[in-house]
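To: structure subgroup
Subject: Chain for Friday's discussion

All,

I'm putting the inputs and outputs inline so they're searchable in the archive.
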Amino acid sequence: MAANLAQNQTDVAAGLAPTFFYSYPQFAGTGPGTTGLTVLDSHDFSTYHSLQTQVRRAFSNGLTFQASYVWSKSTDTRSFDPTFTTVGTASSPFGASSTPFDLDNRRLNYAPSDFDRTHVFQSIWVYQLPFGHGKRWGHSWNGFVDRVLGGWEIGGFGMIESGRPTTVYSTSNDYTLNSVVRTVANCDGCSPNMFHIHRDASTGLLTYVTSDQIAKFSTPAAGQFSNVGRNFFRLAGYKNLSMSVAKKVRITERQDVEMRLEVQNVTNSVHYDEPGSNRYNNSDFGVVDPLTVSEDGRGLTSDPRKMQVSVRYTF
């Protein structure tokens, strides 16, 4: 607000200096011969609570697996070390919410961390099929049959996790608390989990929000802060399944050949991250269609299904 008042010339007409509303104009970079300051402080704070579980087991039938589950909550006022980090501020549509909205009230920034994931489940397993010499079936096979049907192994890795938090901002020219960080939008009657991927019938594009949801957003009044705050909403979750099929053929006591087929993202699952814009009045607000993502790659963040075949000869 100080910047807007200083630019308004009203203070000049009243006989006041152009920098009258600046606390320390000599350090604010507001005129010729002045320079700004980079301030580093230790006023940030964070908390982390979690339940972490892990199960690991190796069975006699050739199955080995490990599974882990974490239920957690991470909150902070800034999700990065600001000492040698450059982040976007007023002109950037993402990442600015980690800059203090009010230097005298850091709790306005206190919210779920940018990297917070409520639920995370991961599992990895390997299973040696029970066929061939030394196995449940085929222990009396001759050498040729054993080389063809024995020695098979399948493995996999799976992950399921909650979506990460995101912030919705007001219009590009609204700064109700300061001239550095764009104001976080108000949202009346909104739920943190109301963002759901769907196709907009009017545009044919994939989006997180409906027109009715967009109508719930507004800009706080001058000097006021958002009624939902930083990182209130959640993006879509993430899931991935990768698997492999391997076959080892022993040629001699010292030589063998291993053939492996690896498939990444077996289910060809699609994961969407930040939309094209997080300003509620922007035409790309909530849009995540891969054909309309921004130049920095936001939108589609998952890789398509990939298959790879490899052969290794050991001697």
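Points worth raising on Friday:
Residues 86-96 have pLDDT under 50 and may be disordered.
The two ends are 74 Å apart (CA to CA).

D.
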